[in-house]
Amino acid sequence: xxxxxxxxxxxxxxxxxxxxxxxxxxxxxxxxxxxxxxxxxxxxxxxxxxxxxxxxxxxxxxxxxxxxxxxxxxxxxxxxxxxxxxxxxxxxxxxxxxxxxxxxxxxxxxxxxxxxxxxxxxxxxxxxxxxxxxxxxxxxxxxxxxxxxxxxxxxxxxxxxxxxxxxxxxxxxxxxxxxxxxxxxxxxxxxxxxxxxxxxxxxxxxxxxxxxxxxxxxxxxxxxxxxxxxxxxxxxxxxxxxxxxxxxxxxxxxxxxxxxxxxxxxxxxxxxxxxxxxxxxxxxxxxxxxxxxxxxxxxxxxxxxxxxxxxxxxxxxxxxxxxxxxxxxxxxxxxxxxxxxxxxxxxxxxxxxxxxxxxxxxxxxxxxxxxxxxxxxxxxxxxxxxxxxxxxxxxxxxxxxxx
Length: 403
Prior knowledge:
The chain has helices at 4-19, 22-25, 342-350, 353-368, 391-394, and strands at 30-31, 38-41, 46-53, 60-64, 69-73, 76-77, 84-89, 93-98, 107-113, 119-133, 142-145, 150-153, 156-159, 163-168, 174-177, 183-186, 189-190, 193-196, 205-212, 219-234, 239-242, 248-257, 261-266, 271-272, 278-284, 289-296, 305-313, 316-326. By secondary structure, it is mainly β. Mean pLDDT is 82; it is low at 1-25 and 334-403.
């Protein structure tokens, strides 16, 4: 039996398979699912999946539709982009991978089957970019004289285009002044440019520009606005009185920007510095407000006089005067040591004869005694006189008894 006819039939079948895809001999390939659209943040990976039935001997290709650039055919990558690769599973699931997606990867991608006519479906790759600031077009910290105008700018980029809003870091309202002089107080201001005209010291502080486009993370930039003006001093009490022996506190409220050098001077011209006698301190109230505090311990007659609080910065110098005087008759007495026992507790609740006597004596002194700072008349104690006999006793006559 000759084997030549069987061998010839086998070669013919092999050539037929090479020339005609198996799908022609069986079923026409179809897509079993549509190609999904993808939204990927820049830097992440994206994968398109093309589901095919009855592929047979046909081939699957990938094309970037907007540029007509072939990405891959079957198992072979055609593009020179090293971030692109392909994979498949059982000839029914075909994947196009794009690693570390960049903005230039955005666009339409086509999955093709080389039938006649060609079959294809498309999916869109959307590359989103979180917001970021364009540093060379964004303001930094600024200094402006009081009454001047400052323009703050925050330029942001991203995809979609970010929205920029402004707010104050201390949550105080932003004052927007219109050309006609009207003022608007806004908790938030929207726009890349914030203009502050005829600025006042109350508008000094940190401003935050915040850029967002629904793609995390939201970014913000802190811009410090310094408003410069010469020092101003306010004195709550320009005349202060105190009894001797007490501690006295003097206060001055200073507003200055740049920050001022603050100090105290007595009427003698001597600078007051912290010591056992004096306590000099300052408490910051805001960016431009400081409370100057001078405590004079154990106030004495030598402390009576004028005290000047002085503030000085690069724009000027200012001072204010406080007059300190003695309040007579209220000298503080040092407390005596106390001892607690049951008698003290009883006296505290119910009083005592000694306390009542002392109270009556103090009341008598308060009424009859001299006023403070009035000359006191010398007090002469009258000579001792024996008590007068009662009228009844003076009328008694001696009685003699004669036995």
